[in-house]
Amino acid sequence: MSGNGWTQVTEVADRVVAERRTPTTDELATWRWFLRAHATITRALENELEAEEKLSLASYDVLVQLAEAPDRRLRMTELADAVLLSRSGVTRLVDRLERMGLVSRCPVESDGRGVAARLTDAGLGRLRRASRSHLTGVQRHFVARLDQASMEALEEISRRLAG
What we know:
There is one protein chain. This protein is mainly alpha-helical. It has a domain of 114 residues: Winged helix-like DNA-binding domain superfamily/Winged helix DNA-binding domain (Arc Repressor Mutant, subunit A). Strands 1-3-2 form a 3-stranded antiparallel beta sheet. A hairpin with a 2-residue loop joins strand 2 and strand 3.
Protein backbone atom coordinates (compact mmCIF):
# COMPACT_ATOMS: atom_id res chain seq x y z
CA MET A 1 0.00 0.00 0.00
CA SER A 2 1.32 3.44 -0.83
CA GLY A 3 2.13 5.94 1.89
CA ASN A 4 -0.97 7.95 1.04
CA GLY A 5 -3.28 4.88 1.23
CA TRP A 6 -1.79 3.84 4.57
CA THR A 7 -2.36 7.34 5.97
CA GLN A 8 -6.03 7.15 5.00
CA VAL A 9 -6.42 3.76 6.69
CA THR A 10 -4.84 4.96 9.93
CA GLU A 11 -6.94 8.13 9.92
CA VAL A 12 -10.13 6.04 9.60
CA ALA A 13 -8.94 3.72 12.38
CA ASP A 14 -8.12 6.68 14.64
CA ARG A 15 -11.58 8.15 13.99
CA VAL A 16 -13.29 4.85 14.87
CA VAL A 17 -11.33 4.60 18.12
CA ALA A 18 -12.14 8.23 18.99
CA GLU A 19 -15.86 7.62 18.36
CA ARG A 20 -15.94 4.44 20.46
CA ARG A 21 -17.45 5.12 23.84
CA THR A 22 -16.15 3.43 26.95
CA PRO A 23 -18.47 2.54 29.84
CA THR A 24 -19.04 5.16 32.49
CA THR A 25 -18.19 4.53 36.13
CA ASP A 26 -21.88 3.84 36.86
CA GLU A 27 -22.16 1.46 33.90
CA LEU A 28 -19.08 -0.43 35.05
CA ALA A 29 -20.54 -0.64 38.56
CA THR A 30 -23.73 -2.14 37.11
CA TRP A 31 -21.66 -4.63 35.08
CA ARG A 32 -19.74 -5.67 38.20
CA TRP A 33 -22.95 -6.11 40.22
CA PHE A 34 -24.32 -8.29 37.43
CA LEU A 35 -21.18 -10.46 37.48
CA ARG A 36 -21.16 -10.61 41.30
CA ALA A 37 -24.85 -11.63 41.43
CA HIS A 38 -24.35 -14.36 38.82
CA ALA A 39 -21.25 -15.71 40.57
CA THR A 40 -22.88 -15.65 44.01
CA ILE A 41 -26.01 -17.49 42.92
CA THR A 42 -24.11 -19.98 40.76
CA ARG A 43 -21.67 -20.73 43.61
CA ALA A 44 -24.52 -21.28 46.08
CA LEU A 45 -26.39 -23.61 43.69
CA GLU A 46 -23.17 -25.49 42.89
CA ASN A 47 -22.31 -25.95 46.57
CA GLU A 48 -25.79 -27.21 47.41
CA LEU A 49 -25.88 -29.70 44.53
CA GLU A 50 -22.42 -30.99 45.43
CA ALA A 51 -23.24 -31.31 49.13
CA GLU A 52 -26.70 -32.84 48.74
CA GLU A 53 -26.41 -34.81 45.50
CA LYS A 54 -22.66 -35.14 44.77
CA LEU A 55 -23.37 -33.57 41.38
CA SER A 56 -21.80 -30.50 39.80
CA LEU A 57 -23.98 -27.77 38.32
CA ALA A 58 -22.51 -28.53 34.87
CA SER A 59 -23.41 -32.22 35.27
CA TYR A 60 -26.91 -31.27 36.34
CA ASP A 61 -27.22 -29.04 33.26
CA VAL A 62 -26.15 -31.90 30.98
CA LEU A 63 -28.76 -34.20 32.54
CA VAL A 64 -31.47 -31.51 32.13
CA GLN A 65 -30.57 -30.90 28.48
CA LEU A 66 -30.68 -34.62 27.73
CA ALA A 67 -33.97 -35.11 29.62
CA GLU A 68 -35.59 -32.36 27.56
CA ALA A 69 -34.25 -33.64 24.21
CA PRO A 70 -36.18 -35.97 21.90
CA ASP A 71 -35.51 -39.59 22.90
CA ARG A 72 -33.39 -38.15 25.77
CA ARG A 73 -30.39 -37.87 23.44
CA LEU A 74 -28.32 -35.16 21.78
CA ARG A 75 -25.34 -35.17 19.47
CA MET A 76 -22.22 -34.25 21.40
CA THR A 77 -21.88 -31.00 19.43
CA GLU A 78 -25.50 -30.05 20.20
CA LEU A 79 -24.95 -30.86 23.86
CA ALA A 80 -21.82 -28.70 23.98
CA ASP A 81 -23.76 -25.78 22.50
CA ALA A 82 -26.68 -26.29 24.87
CA VAL A 83 -24.56 -26.28 28.04
CA LEU A 84 -22.11 -23.62 26.83
CA LEU A 85 -19.04 -25.85 27.11
CA SER A 86 -16.31 -26.55 24.59
CA ARG A 87 -16.53 -29.87 22.77
CA SER A 88 -13.58 -31.21 24.73
CA GLY A 89 -15.16 -29.98 27.98
CA VAL A 90 -18.46 -31.73 27.28
CA THR A 91 -16.60 -34.88 26.24
CA ARG A 92 -14.79 -35.02 29.59
CA LEU A 93 -18.02 -34.33 31.47
CA VAL A 94 -19.92 -37.02 29.54
CA ASP A 95 -17.02 -39.42 30.28
CA ARG A 96 -17.55 -38.84 34.02
CA LEU A 97 -21.33 -39.15 33.76
CA GLU A 98 -20.95 -42.32 31.72
CA ARG A 99 -18.70 -43.85 34.40
CA MET A 100 -21.44 -43.00 36.92
CA GLY A 101 -24.03 -44.78 34.75
CA LEU A 102 -26.06 -41.61 34.22
CA VAL A 103 -25.34 -41.17 30.49
CA SER A 104 -24.40 -43.52 27.68
CA ARG A 105 -22.97 -42.86 24.26
CA CYS A 106 -24.71 -44.12 21.15
CA PRO A 107 -24.16 -43.76 17.41
CA VAL A 108 -26.16 -41.26 15.38
CA GLU A 109 -28.12 -43.33 12.86
CA SER A 110 -28.01 -40.70 10.12
CA ASP A 111 -24.24 -40.17 10.49
CA GLY A 112 -21.87 -43.11 10.70
CA ARG A 113 -19.24 -41.04 12.50
CA GLY A 114 -21.60 -39.07 14.76
CA VAL A 115 -21.92 -39.80 18.47
CA ALA A 116 -24.77 -38.83 20.74
CA ALA A 117 -25.12 -38.81 24.50
CA ARG A 118 -28.25 -40.46 25.90
CA LEU A 119 -29.70 -40.08 29.36
CA THR A 120 -30.04 -43.48 31.06
CA ASP A 121 -32.90 -44.45 33.34
CA ALA A 122 -30.48 -44.12 36.26
CA GLY A 123 -29.58 -40.64 35.00
CA LEU A 124 -33.23 -39.65 34.84
CA GLY A 125 -33.75 -40.86 38.40
CA ARG A 126 -30.70 -38.96 39.61
CA LEU A 127 -31.90 -35.83 37.81
CA ARG A 128 -35.31 -36.07 39.49
CA ARG A 129 -33.69 -36.31 42.94
CA ALA A 130 -31.22 -33.50 42.20
CA SER A 131 -34.00 -31.29 40.81
CA ARG A 132 -35.61 -31.05 44.25
CA SER A 133 -32.43 -29.57 45.69
CA HIS A 134 -31.68 -27.39 42.69
CA LEU A 135 -35.17 -25.92 42.32
CA THR A 136 -35.33 -25.21 46.06
CA GLY A 137 -32.04 -23.33 45.67
CA VAL A 138 -33.29 -21.38 42.65
CA GLN A 139 -36.33 -20.36 44.69
CA ARG A 140 -34.24 -19.37 47.73
CA HIS A 141 -31.32 -17.61 46.02
CA PHE A 142 -33.13 -16.03 43.06
CA VAL A 143 -36.94 -16.04 42.89
CA ALA A 144 -37.61 -15.14 46.53
CA ARG A 145 -35.37 -12.07 46.26
CA LEU A 146 -37.27 -10.46 43.37
CA ASP A 147 -40.81 -9.17 43.02
CA GLN A 148 -42.87 -9.83 39.88
CA ALA A 149 -41.94 -6.52 38.23
CA SER A 150 -38.23 -7.19 38.81
CA MET A 151 -38.57 -10.71 37.42
CA GLU A 152 -40.23 -9.38 34.27
CA ALA A 153 -37.63 -6.64 33.84
CA LEU A 154 -34.78 -9.10 34.35
CA GLU A 155 -36.28 -11.49 31.82
CA GLU A 156 -36.55 -8.70 29.25
CA ILE A 157 -32.98 -7.57 29.92
CA SER A 158 -31.65 -11.12 29.79
CA ARG A 159 -33.38 -11.83 26.49
CA ARG A 160 -31.86 -8.65 25.03
CA LEU A 161 -28.40 -9.55 26.29
CA ALA A 162 -28.68 -13.13 24.98
CA GLY A 163 -29.20 -11.63 21.54
